[in-house]
Amino acid sequence: MCVFGGRASSRFTALNTPLVQPLLLYCYPPIPFPGGTVHMVCRNKDKAEEARADIVKESGNKEIYVHILDLSETRKVWEFAEAFKRKYKALNVLINNAGCIMSERDVNAEGLEKSFASNVMGVYILTRGLIPLLEKSAEPRVITVSSGGMLVQKLRTGNLQTEIGRYDGTMVYAQHKRQQVVMTEQWAKTHSNIHFSVMHPGWVDTPAVANAMPDFHQSMKDSLRTPEQGADTAVWLAISEAAATKPSGSFFQDRRMVSAHLPLAWTHSSQLEQQKFMSVMEDLAKTFQPH
């Protein structure tokens, strides 16, 4: 358990989308802000309730609420955001933490490639939909959990759903994590009253890593981080006063602001490319928005 100097209080409300696999809720546990209210947005009800019980027991905070939502179901993400805004008056922190790695390409009922729908479109819609609620709070923050895998990827503005070419789930995931970095940077420019950040948790020992990269997991398992270690920077970004002094839109690892690009990696994209990507996301998101 880490201790943070922060701003949590009885009026502090956070929404966290934990990583949910088909039969498993794991990875970075929802954050037990002392005295605040935490809303967990999860896919698996049984695992979510189990996690909630553990958090209540450990923290003593009963203001932990579970909402069942699959972020790959795009229309339902819109509906959730609208319902949440109607029910609650403010939101202090949004943590985008859900994600998935697919071994082969699959599409959801709406025709979207599932990992793109969950990792990118779901994050885009949920964040965009809740920005008006965040703007009603003092010092609102949005933290998105990315991955160091994105460091080998340059932003793609086309073929976003990997309809062309071979489907490599690990590389697709890495591209999605690059897209999350770009979304964070662009949101920071257009919403100056919200503090946006994106972070790499380090390589954490989770079933997702074991299943997606078995050779890597086998060779590195003794060096992988625990879920608590992986969550540390996200918690710090959410509640510490020091984090709020860092530039909005920055990329973090181990509580430090670091470059979102490796030297000589040729992963930089132009402002025009980034704006084109955001425009494509907005247009696609609107096609699923309830009227």
From TrEMBL:
Transmembrane domains' residue ranges: none
InterPro entries: NAD(P)-bd_dom_sf, SDR_fam, SDR_member_12
Protein name as annotated: Dehydrogenase/reductase 12-like a
Record gene name: LOC115163628
